[in-house]
Task: structure prediction
Amino acid sequence: MLIRNYGLFWHRSRVKWGKARTKGTLEGYFKGAKRQGCVDFREQRGIYVLYDETFRIVYVGQAGRGNQCLFARLKQHKSDHLAERWTRFSWFGTRGVTDDWELGADEKFRTDLSSVLNHIEGILLAVAEPPLNLQRGRFGGDVEQYLQERPDA
Result:
């Protein structure tokens, strides 16, 4: 399996960015009713997409090269050439969530071409929302969607 979980259209303003001596968090909770709990996706690896206030895609990037994680990449974009151009983001992560609501370890990928193509199609359909596609992406039953935790919750 390539993608283990994802979050769509999270608000930049709801991220707990941290202050001096606090690391910040990127928290979300499972969308379905079968599992309850909050997960910090700060160290997630995968693909992310930045959107402006009209939900237009302004940037697509990856988190995972070297030691860079999702939170670090997003934080970089708060002060680089994209700083004033994005208000929301979506992410697609390769690390699963454990029963203790922690991110699992990086795993070797063992998957078939059909699954990879379904995941790529699923990502593209989720971020672009093409109006003529009548179906949503086919990630498969093991891929979980997480909703963004509100900072005041």
The chain has one domain: 5-148. The radius of gyration is 15 Å. Residues 5-148 form one domain. The first strand starts at residue 5 and ends at 11.
